[in-house]
Amino acid sequence: MNYHFSRLMSRQSDSVEKLLKNTNDPSLIPFSAGNPAPEAFPVAELAALCGRIFAEQPVAALQYNLSSGYPALRDTVKRWVRERCGVGGVEDEVLITTGSQQGMILTARALCDPGDVVLCEEYTFLGALNSFRSCGADTVGVAMEPDGMSIPDLERKLKAHPNARFLYTIPNFQNPTGVTLSAEKRREVYRLACRYGIVILEDDPYGELRFCGEPLPPIKTLDEEGRVIYCGSFSKVVAPGLRVAYAVANRELVTRMSRDKAGDDVHTSALPQILCHRLITETDFAAHLTGLKQVYRRKARLMMNCLDREAVPSGISYLPIDGGMFLWCTLPEGAGMLDYCARLAADAHVAVVPGSAFAADEGAPCRSFRMNFSTPSDEDIVRGCEQLGVFTRKYLGR
Ligand SMILES: Cc1ncc(COP(=O)(O)O)c(C=O)c1O
Fold first, then answer.
1. Which positions ≥6 away from 92 have C-beta within 8 Å?
2. Could you tell me the distance, in angstroms and rounded to a whole number, from the CA of residue 104 to the centre of ligand 1?
3. Which pLDDT band, with edges at 50, 70 and 90, does 5 fall under?
4. Which protein residues are within 6 Å of ligand 1, measured from CB?
């Protein structure tokens, strides 16, 4: 059969699939995954709640529900984000989404026509890039610095692209770089968005995974005019398989996005929504979060210590982090990152993700790669870093 693929689908290339070829090979040590630590899932609490839900409210869990979300969860999220980080004003509403991935595509569909531009950090979450591109938008990267995007470069890109419809940013422990946008830059980003009249999509799945230092207020807390869509997710703090996330945005936007979502999946599955609601309201969720942070702190420090010992002396550098799930490593000048990553997998059996997979500007030169510390066991972290170290010393001849 010779299929006629739509113009939008024809825009998709297989270049990223090729880059990610090695990342799912079970024979490799998985530093490439983007998965939360499996040992931190609240399995016992979820199992007990499931039993209670089917005993007490089976119809609510099994019947069709509202597109905007299970009302009790929307209320719980509204309270939770306000108490936790001051997000949500009188004009805002909560939309429950099927993963924050759905928040990305609903935003792009609401705001972009084909050929419009979405500005993002120069390396960013691949799922978001795919969503924006699948709506026909072009993605344009803003240069990154250790404290978040470059403000002069953001202004240059805003001037150069008057058809930029929104700025997508991951302010906390950015995927893939681990970088956190400083408080001062958050204010600057908001000021420029106002001056150039664009929306900000603030994607914050990692804010709760801060294991060191003080949290910074989300950009959304500066918002007085419905300019910021704040997306959060239960994927990293509970479990990604539940597919429950939320967007907090101006009521008008939420109404439009909810209508659009209805055509997509009618509603996010009710059972996981009720689970998230009851997990927050009936269990010691704060204690769960504290335990989660301990796991992430231990694993992140273990990987950073191993890299300091095994890879930094060979010339690899990385950005230290205070939270999240990722380390962004950079090879010395002159090294071929794609060849390094391919041979690291083939010769040393360690999978990492080439940085170019995350590039907003496809084809931009890149010497970095992403490592994940939440998925592998402690033993795999130690063994994988040793193998990476031996390989790197040979590869870089140091
Ligand atoms: C920055 C970022 N946003 C969103 C997501 C998707 O999360 P969800 O499982 O809620 O769709 C991820 C997943 O890795 C991510 O890294």
1. 226, 248, 249, 250, 251, 254
2. 9
3. confident
4. 34, 99-101, 125, 127, 170, 175, 203, 205, 233, 235, 240, 245
Which positions ≥6 away from 105 have C-beta within 8 Å? 131, 134, 135
Residue nearest to atom 7 of ligand 1 (CA): 100
Token pair of 143 as six digits: 């240069």
CA distance 50 to 46: 6
Q: Which atom of ligand 1 is least distant from the CA of 174?
A: 1
By three-state DSSP, how is residue 121 classified?
A: strand
CA distance 243 to 245: 7
Per-residue pLDDT band for 6 (boundaries 50, 70, 90) equals confident
**Probe residue for ligand 1, chosen from 126, 175, 230 as the CB with the greatest number of ligand atoms within 8 Å:** 175
Shortest-distance atom of ligand 1 to CA 97: 10
Cα–Cα distance, 374 to 39 (Å, whole number): 9
Nearest CA to ligand 1 atom 8: 99
pLDDT of residue 17: 73
CA of 100 to the centre of ligand 1 (A): 6
Give the model's pLDDT for residue 25: 80
pLDDT tens-digit map of 138-188 = 999 999 999 999 999 999 999 999 999 999 999 999 999 999 999 999 999
pLDDT per position as a tens digit, 384-398: 999 999 999 999 987
Cα of 101 to ligand 1 centre, how many Å?
Answer: 6
Distance 314 CA to ligand 1 centre (A): 32
Q: Which domains does the chain have, with CATH numbers?
A: 15-41+287-393 (3.90.1150.10), 43-282 (3.40.640.10)
Q: What pLDDT does 18 receive? A: 67
Separation of alpha carbons 192 and 150, rounded Å = 12
* Gap between the Cα atoms of 380 and 97, Å rounded: 34
E-assigned strands of 5-91? 29-30
> Do the Cβ atoms of 226 and 91 come closer than 8 Å?
yes
